[in-house]
Amino acid sequence: MMDHWITPERLFDGRDLLTGKALRIRAGRVVDMADSHAEAIAVPGLLTPGFVDLQVNGGGGVQLNSTPTADGMDVIADAHRRFGTVALLPTVITDLADVIDRAADAAIAAKGRPGILGLHIEGPHISMVRRGTHSPELVRPLDERTMNTVARLRDAGVAVMITLAPEAAKMDQIKRLAAIGAVVSLGHTDATSEMMVAAFNAGASCATHLFNAMSPMVGRAPGAVGAVINSTSYSGIICDGHHVADEMVGMAIRARPVRDRMFLVSDAMATVGGPTHFSLYGQEITLKDGRLINAEGSLAGAHVTQAEGVKRLVDHTGTSLTDALRMATSVPADCIGQPEIGRLDGRLADDLILLDDDLLMITDLAAHLAQTGGALAAG
């Protein structure tokens, strides 16, 4: 069994940036960390756990709504792994109940496959006013069919995040979803601050892409945005320079009353690692100047990776490198109740990535060591 010690130039362990540390890799997995080791292999760059993304609609030319299968999820996960995201929630947006059920079947079938954490159901139980690119014909109040679908996923041990608007659900429904272990995330909502607080008190623990498709914060009405920022709940945010102004991203991160509650999401579509266009609801979605737009000219998801989001957080929002890395690793892992995927301990070497000084991905650790003669295969 191969056993190596390595010393990266810099190391992020899921919480802190460290230097001068040595990691022990046995049979391709991190088993120990020490201050130094005489026989350690020097590794260039910044070593970090691979990124975690809780909102991924597609990748590699596949959109989950159009291909709600376990194999489709594999294609999406493989596409994002090339850019450093090693764990994600495939996301099905507002659609027919049959499509959502097929996505649930796929998530159950894909349980345990590399990189697939469960399922994010974003809609259809959202505000018509704040639907964004979601089909208006398919928006509807939360019903027992969706409740049963979420229960079926949880009974199978599959992680679930469900995005809904407080005005499209009853508080007892939110309580029931939270009680069975679903992460209830508030989004695509025109709710008042008071409605948001009531939903958080009922068991919602997260918010979906802060600022986007939410009632705004103004002087005399905090709205959904203000309620999220003031809360101690988790919240995702897109940092691509299109969905939210960089200044607003930085302000929101600094304004939260509790640290480590903001996490980065890509909201990525099929174009990441795929062609420059795809079909959604029978409409052509096209990539133009870095923006994905539908026939109405509105934003329709994002063309961005977690790696690009991390770099933009550091370069343009005033966020420290440590906090940016937390937002793409340990914070989303904690939010989804799988903290181990945001840490180094026990991780496979191919789930660890190397970044250069410009925060661009070099490769994963296993590939680097294989290329340099320090292969990590069991022997």
How would you describe what is shown here?
The protein is built from eleven helices and 20 strands. The strands form four sheets. An eight-stranded parallel sheet has the order 6-9-10-11-12-13-14-15. Strands 1, 2, 3, 4, 5, 19 and 20 form a seven-stranded mixed sheet that branches. A three-stranded antiparallel sheet has the order 16-17-18, with no helix packed on it. 54% of the residues are buried. It has helices at residues 70-81, 97-109, 144-155, 171-179, 193-202, 223-230, 246-255, 306-316, 321-327, 330-335, 365-371; strands at residues 3-12, 17-18, 22-26, 29-34, 41-49, 51-56, 58-59, 62-63, 85-93, 118-122, 159-164, 183-186, 206-207, 234-238, 262-265, 277-280, 283-288, 291-293, 352-355, 361-364. The chain is of the alpha/beta class and 379 residues long. The model is unreliable at 375-379 (pLDDT under 50). Helices cover 28% and strands 26% of the residues. The protein folds into two domains: 3-48 and 350-371, Urease, subunit C, domain 1 (Roll), CATH 2.30.40.10; 51-328, Metal-dependent hydrolases (TIM Barrel, Alpha-Beta Barrel).
Provide a brief overview of the structure:
The protein is an alpha/beta fold and 379 residues long. 28% of the residues lie in helices and 26% in strands. The longest helix has 13 residues, at 97-109.
